[in-house]
Amino acid sequence: MVNQLALGVDLGGTNVRAAVVDRESGVVTATVKGVHTDKSPEAVVASIARATDEATKLAGVVGRLSCGVAVAGQLRGDVVSVAPNLGWREVPFGLLLAAKLGRPVAVVNDLKAAAWGEFRVGAAREETDTFTCFVGSGIGGATIASGRLVLGARGVAGEIGHVKVKFEGGRLCGCGEYGCIEAYAGGVNLAAWMAESGLEGGAAELEVQAHAGNVEALRLWDFASSSLALVVANQVTALNPGMVVLGGGVLMRCPKLYERIVKTIETRALAASRVGLKIAFAALGDDSGVVGAAMLGSELQSRG
Ligand SMILES: [Zn+2]
Hints:
Blueprint: E1 5-11, E2 15-22, E3 28-35, H1 41-58, E4 67-71, E5 74-76, E6 79-83, E7 88-91, H2 93-101, E8 106-109, H3 110-121, E9 130-135, E10 139-145, E11 148-149, H4 182-185, H5 187-196, H6 203-211, H7 215-239, E12 243-247, H8 249-253, H9 255-268, E13 278-281, H10 288-303
Parallel strand pairs: 1-4, 4-8, 9-12, 12-13
Antiparallel strand pairs: 1-2, 2-3, 5-6, 6-7, 9-10, 10-11
Helix pairs in contact: 1-2, 3-10, 6-7, 7-9
The chain binds zinc ion.
């Protein structure tokens, strides 16, 4: 009998969240958080194993559940080729997880998982074509076209955080390249840029200072927000989604940034591409990653 439940894991730079999720409804029946100060692949895998064990015990699960692990990074199959916030390069993550957990594990990109969660049971459940962009410590994106997740020829389609906003050079991004939008508007990089410019705090503080008349704050906020807004609007022109799903901690805390993205889509995306377009905030909140990872994991594994 196929178990109705599935395990989803959302792996961040410093914490991990494991949840037992109903595969059809997306309802989370148990959730466990863990923290990993040691970011070595072995320590992170051990932390995931602890969290998934606890979550399955908490849910009273008997038998083995399929498992999907969402990671913020570029993947090549189940190898993490680049994960800036973990400092990983070329980590055979799927193999390490399978060895530790004693079962096959589907490794998925965090934004693809979040987009899938929102598409299956969240804000976009009535849609067939969506573009999802989350702005948190980093910036990620994913596209669903005709009900299918767009992976790209090498699995890295939708890496909107690494779209360039400078013709040449620019600020260094965690991916190792220069001039990416994430290097300006991603939460971690934006806070670093603020510190270099003599400003305190992070994205939410910047927004407040910029609108209170601080000239330096306005310079940073204006470049970061206008560039990000144009990048998202241009995706609408290129992809013609039925819905844009926006989410992530920075967008949650920065209403003016959110507003600017929405306004820019409404005025700068090609008119024909925004006919009937809906724009929504992610409905699953913090859960979109774990829910999507669980669903994507079970779907990928049942397909073999
Ligand atoms: Zn980058």
